Amino acid sequence: MAAAAVEKEEEQWTEEEWAEWEQAKRKAEMPMGSSPSTESIVSYVSCKVYLMDKLKCVEPGRLFFSEIPKGIDPRIQEMLQPIFSHINRDDHSERAAFLHITRALLKRCGWQGTDNCNGWLRMYISHFPCISCVAVSCQFVRFFPAVRLQMDFDNMWKTRFEPSDKFGSDRFHAQGGLAGRRQRIDEGFS
Question: 3-state DSSP: the chain helix, strand, coil percent, rounded to 5?
């Protein structure tokens, strides 16, 4: 019965009302605030890498932030080149992590041993990678083809506004999630 009432109500909407509804929906689903800054994005890395079946590098877990690690050989920076697109992207946390790990592997395996390295590297990024960081990831795989790269990432457009505790989360979802928050903002929290 309720479904029939909804269908009848939908049939009565004009094209203009549907267009207005679609526009309101797009606005409610839009991200709030400004873009996540380079400084607010973090990468977490762990790895275990072997050379000729001998364990050479173990990183149980480490956070990387937006700065180029100190003392990186310029040749390593040339191996993992960022893409310049509107802004300089050489200091992203993903690249910082790859530079650090590459330096560690080259110290232990030598410049000629990169093809003989195997193992795994896991990276979690707090926001999806930009095109430059995807390029750096591909360059890492090029130089260490037998090191399995496993990456996962979040979307700060969505997660940075969600509450951190169960009570806040239940209230957030009961109030309509991000769309509900956008509506409350537009209505002045009335």
Answer: 45, 20, 35
